[in-house]
Amino acid sequence: MDFELTEEQKMLQTMVRDFCTKEIEPYAAEWDEGNEFPYETIKKMADAGLFAVHFPEKYGGSGDELTFVIAAEEVSRASAGLGVVYLASLGLSMYPIIMHGSEQQKEHYIPRVVNGAIVAFGLTEAMAGSDVAALETKYTKEGDFYVLNGTKIFISNGAEAEFVTTFATKDRALGYRGMSAFVVDRGTPGFSVGKIERKMGLHPASATELVFDNCKIPVANLLGEEGRGFRVALESIDASRITIAAQAVGIAQAAFDAAVAYCKERSQFGMELGRMQAIQWMIADMAADIEMTRLLTYKAAWLTEKEGHAPVKESAMAKLCASEASHRVCDKAVQIFGGYGYTKDFAVERYYRDQRITELYEGTSEMQRWTIARQVLGMK
To answer: What is the CA radius of gyration of the chain?
Structure first.
């Protein structure tokens, strides 16, 4: 068993850390405060090759799933808001095309993302959150076209996406067997962005409604086979959970680094905070949480490469443990900062807000526990 990263992965990790320190960290608070989408920084990320990681080399990509996880952690450490833009574009939104797209679809869409295109994943609806099969967006086939009608909600990157991978049902009575997956380009008649949500955190990233009103797309935009959309959605989410775990680890690392530095600078009762046993215990717990969840996340990514698909149990474990550990770490960081931690003058306030969503999207913690239990018990 080898816990060492390859030389290429170490180099990538160092390169991404240096890039984030220079191009992302100094602006993260400004983006958060102004709900600013960082177009210029995204272009710089693409120019540096960060939008190529984990895509097949034949389409301009490089690296593997573990490389993607390493990059996702570093970007999210610098800015969780930019992190979700990055993860949603390269990961969740593109897994349907990577795993189920035709050769023509891969050749058309993957190079666009390598060059910095923003992408969205349109699944969630008002009545279909954790219950994916309950979606109400419908599709009909008219000759060489599909026509989509319905509304998606809480869609990350919805306002900026150049295209979206989305899901609709032929007949709600068919349940999950009626679902199909499609790719829809921005500018398609009948496709528009609706309400933009005002969120607790991740302010640089939009979360919007996507409206399909007699949206007519070519038959060639079907992803995979008709009636197999449920499988496309679940396999994509299983893979994406690992990158959300990486995001959670990155946020936790940022909060931990800030807390450790503060412990060495701040004095109370005539001594540094770091010399107080109560603070030391918090720091120890934070360090253990991060180390534990990083290893679990890396293992899930390694298994994905080894097995050729995301391991359902391990991806759910990584997402569950990393998101809840990140919650604990960020909470302790605010506690260590005391009253200062509750102000926007210090970044731990932002980390605390940004972290909370990791326990909700890509499946709530309750859904992760349900998934893990069914895997352990052998239930389908």
So the answer is: 21
Rounded distance, CA 336 to CA 270, Å? 17
- Evaluate whether 243 touches 69 at the Cβ level (below 8 Å): yes
160 is catalytic: no
Give tens-digit pLDDT for 85-127. 999 999 999 999 999 999 999 999 999 999 999 999 999 999 8
Q: What share of the chain is helix, strand, coil (3-state, %, to 5)?
A: 60, 15, 25
> Which one of 36, 225, 362, 366 is the catalytic residue?
362
In the numeric block, which tokens belong to residue 15? 């390169």
pTM above 0.85, yes or no: yes
Q: Which two tokens stand for residue 151?
A: 């509304």
Q: What are the angstrom distances between the C-alpha of 360 and each of 2, 127, 249? A: 33, 16, 15
Q: What whole-number distance in Å separates Cα of residue 38 and Cα of residue 51?
A: 15
Q: What is the pLDDT of residues 178-198, one digit of tens each?
A: 999 999 999 999 999 999 999
